[in-house]
Design goal:
71% strand, mainly beta, 5% helix, 1 helix
């Protein structure tokens, strides 16, 4: 929020510049998200002198491209790669790996596209599919493994803001979301003695800072 407020104050003070900022019909925009996170924790239980270690890593690369059909409206698509790995060690070692893809389309309406600071509303539809492999190795030499598939569909509406740093490069953000999602999961053990499936429907409406994201956008 400090970055956003500072950027707005700087741009308001330079509003008298003659350089033209903003979007117009025929502009091509390139944006997206690149995310990497890693986490590790360790805990010890005095009751049984057992130590637990948890490690996780995630990678998401989701580029997107859009085109201004008119001065106010842009349409585009995104496609990305997803990967994650988690490991939990205590009396046994449980490992889970996931990889897959996400794809979707979006439409974005800009309220004041010819300004250095402009606001937009985005409606989008996404599809996500991942496969997982898990293993569980017990200290008593007992082990199990399985694989699963996860699919999700979502439609959502998101408000946002775009701030030009140069004529072509800008910071863009989305804050909050209103949307519907449906997910399906299927899992089966390699040994064939266990199988499960589940479905989940959810509706989300949030304008909290938990849904506040910054990204970079380049226009041509």
């Amino acid at each position: 929020m400090s970055l956003l407020i500072g950027s707005l104050s700087i741009f308001n003070s330079s509003a008298q510049e003659e350089i033209e900022y903003g979007f117009k019909k025929g502009d091509l925009i390139i944006s997206g998200a690149i995310n990497y996170s890693t986490n590790s924790s360790k805990s010890k239980f005095d009751t049984n002198d057992l130590e637990q270690k948890i490690k996780s890593n995630t990678i998401a690369i989701i580029p997107e491209v859009g085109y201004f059909i008119s001065n106010h409206f842009a349409a585009g698509a995104r496609i990305g790669y997803l990967w994650s790995k988690s490991e939990n060690q205590n009396s046994s070692t449980y490992t889970n790996k996931q990889d897959g893809f996400t794809t979707g389309v979006f439409g974005r309406y800009y309220i004041n596209p010819d300004k250095r600071v402009n606001f937009f509303a985005e409606i989008a539809s996404n599809y996500r599919k991942t496969t997982s492999e898990s293993t569980n190795n017990d200290l008593n030499s007992l082990s199990s493994s399985g694989s699963g598939e996860q699919k999700s569909y979502s439609v959502y509406l998101t408000p946002g803001i775009n701030i030009f740093l140069t004529q072509n490069l800008s910071l863009t953000s989305r804050i909050g979301t209103v949307g519907y999602s449906k997910s399906e999961q299927d899992y089966h053990s390699i040994e064939g003695d266990y199988r499960s499936s589940s479905e989940n429907d959810s509706f989300t409406a949030s304008l909290s800072l938990d849904n506040f994201y910054f990204g970079v956008l380049y226009s041509i």
